[in-house]
Amino acid sequence: MVRLEDERDLETLRQVSILLDNENRRLIDKVRRLALENARLRGVTDSGQRELELIRELELARERVFRVEPQQPKQEEIPAERKAQRGHGPRPQQRLPVVEHRYELSPEQKKCNQCGRELREMKGQYQESERVTVVKLSYQLEHNLQQKYYCSCGENVVTADGPAQLIPGGRYSPEFAVEVAVAKYADHLPLERQVKMMAREGLEVDSQTLWDQLNALARHLEPTYEALGKRVLNSPVLNADESGWPLMGKKNKPAAGTVWALSSPEVAFYRMMPGKSSEEGQQVFGDYRGIAVVDGFKVYQVLARKGPNMRLAHCWAHVKRKFSEIAEQFPTACSEILELIGELYAVEKLVPVPFPGDEAAQKLRHRLRQERSKAILDRIWKWATVQQGLPRSDFGKAVRYLLEHWKGLTVFVEDPRVPLDNNAAERALRGPVVGRKNHYGSRSLRGTHVAALFYTLCETAKLAGVDPRSYLLAAVLVAIDKPGTVTFPESLASASTT
Q1: pTM of this prediction?
Q2: What is the chain's alpha carbon radius of gyration, rounded to the nearest angstrom?
Q3: One domain, residues 395 and 434
Q4: What is d(CA 118, CA 285) in angstroms, rounded to the nearest whole number?
Q5: Alpha-carbon 125 to chain mean position
Q6: Mean pLDDT value across residues 446-471
Q7: Domain range for 391
């Protein structure tokens, strides 16, 4: 919750309250959807009565906060405040299915230890408890029989359709391939490690077989991957970043490769390239027309000069980081600039919805930036231009970085869709970076493309609030049935609300 105790501007408070009300409505709708889904998974026949009562309490709370003429509720209607859970106590497990087990005394135990008579059952009386247990992941070999039919004319024989296959005549199901893909690209488990885990459950398989399934799965999902790439490059604003991605050669000597990440609020898209030159960057961005939020990497400046329709917005988090790292050596000056940058972030927090928000949120953000952020930027500029320090010192380099990137650092004031920093791109790179540490990059050029595809689909599903496993399985089943079909993750999210 944004702290607004010191805010005195009535128009700002009014717009913030409207945004909070809209956000509460959205969250209540989400709770309703999740409650109904939870009830369905648990097999509750009363449509999740307890969950629906909770939703009603949330709606009543919203009405008490936002109604124009608040009325005093009756004393018994005021719910008791619950303290926030602390420590490691039991957590509500709303997403787990509930299985009920009844425990009864054996005939030998149904004897009174006082008089010896038979104990009688207390109808409806139980001592209740719950525990979380585990059902092991298991594998099974399906034996499929596709019935054949014939006509008495002797001219026609028809065979019933069998299950969906990644590879015609293949032995492994789409569900199996999806499980392998999620384990590697969402949970960062190398294929060799998965082989050992599968062997413990009775499945004998090798890493080459697992790779074959990933490769086949990727070919079915190629149109969706390409469509997501076009979608992110059609965004008026995107975040971009890059990191190393080793490519193992025949002698297991890694070559320096690069994973490029382009992200928008809806898509996280990745391309694996042999390097990070401007030519390779050109292949990633193409003829992008819009604003790219980036760090100070020189290649982005080259791309912006080559493509006049691409504009750069630079990252305030990088500026802040440079001064934070040298704050101990230059405490006074660094504290001044860090405080000013903190004021920029404080203005952003006055818009209490996830970035970038709807039209109302963007309108409020634009007004606040014009009225408040501009004045803070003027103070930062004046501070930077009067600093005196050795040009080659860490402090001098930090000030020079700020001044050299000033044009890109001020783009956000004019466009409310531009974030203050490039943290979204850095978050998008976390998955590939963790995967790189676990399975050391890729062993072939085809492997880099497959990795980019699955990282794109898994991370994009997360942005949409969809389970990557469910998304990959739904997308590949549709693609097998109708080759070339594109599936976006929000289509699954919207389907679950109906």
Answers
A1: 0.80
A2: 29
A3: no
A4: 81
A5: 45
A6: 96
A7: 316-421
Cβ-count burial 231-254 (b if 16+ within 10 Å, e if not): bbbebebbbbbbbebbbbeeeeee
C-beta of residue 319 within 8 angstroms of C-beta of residue 418? no
* Gap between the Cα atoms of 214 and 195, Å rounded: 14
* 291 touches 412 (CB < 8 A): no
Q: How many CB atoms lie within 10 A of CB 18?
A: 14
Identity (one letter) of the amino acid at 411? V
pLDDT of 74 > 50? The answer is no
Dig out the tokens for 42 from the structure: 């648990």
Give the count of domains, the chain.
3
Q: What are phi and psi of 367, to 5 degrees?
A: -65, -45
440 and 383 within one domain: no
* pLDDT classification of 47: cutoffs 50, 70, 90: very low
- CA quadruple 204, 208, 214, 215: dihedral positive or negative? negative
Assign residue 87 a region (left: φ > 0; alpha: ψ between -120 and 50; beta: otherwise).
left
Query: Is residue 144 in some structural domain?
Result: no
Kindly report, residue by residue over 220-251, the tens digit of the pLDDT: 999 999 999 999 999 999 999 999 998 876 55
Peptide bond into 356 cis (omega under 30): yes
> CA 44, CA 128: separation in Å to the nearest integer?
18
Together in a domain, 405 and 427: no
Average pLDDT of the chain is 87
Asked if residue 225 is part of any domain, the answer here is yes
Of the candidates 475, 469, 481, 486, the one whose C-alpha atom is nearest the C-alpha of residue 163 is 481
- Residues 62, 21: contact at Cβ < 8 Å? yes
